[in-house]
TrEMBL record:
The lineage of its organism: Bacteria, Pseudomonadati, Pseudomonadota, Gammaproteobacteria, Methylococcales. Signal peptide: none annotated. It holds the Pfam family FlxA. This is FlxA-like family protein. InterPro entries: FlxA. Residues 1-27, 66-104 are annotated as: Disordered. Residues 1-22, 78-104 have a biased composition (Low complexity).
């Protein structure tokens, strides 16, 4: 049995694409409340309860990540504006691919 979405009562999760921080905060609070409700839920068996809680926790982590990214993005915009908007940045990434010797 797999759970692809969670909806309980009037609260449900839908991924935020371009939400304001207050909207993200509200979604985070809803998910936290859903986790608390599910932990207290006596109707579901232990396996179903654990699956629902795990899904809610994943959704919570995703929302918290979005909030952090948005906060970082807003701080970068603020810093750029404060410095006159004339900042440039460059970055490069290099990597090496490993090889597997399959000869015996």
């Amino acid at each position: 049995m797999s759970i692809s979405s969670v909806s309980s009562g009037s609260a449900s999760y839908s991924p935020a694409t371009s939400s304001s921080s207050s909207q993200l905060d509200k979604q985070i609070a809803k998910i936290q409340q859903e986790i608390i409700k599910e932990q207290a839920n006596k109707a579901d068996d232990a396996k179903t309860k654990a699956q629902k809680i795990q899904l809610l926790q994943q959704q919570l982590q995703q929302l918290e990540l979005q909030a952090r990214q948005q906060s970082t993005s807003n701080a970068a915009v603020s810093n750029n504006t404060a410095s006159g908007g004339n900042t440039t940045s460059s970055s490069s990434a290099t990597g090496t691919a490993g090889s597997i010797d399959t000869t015996a």
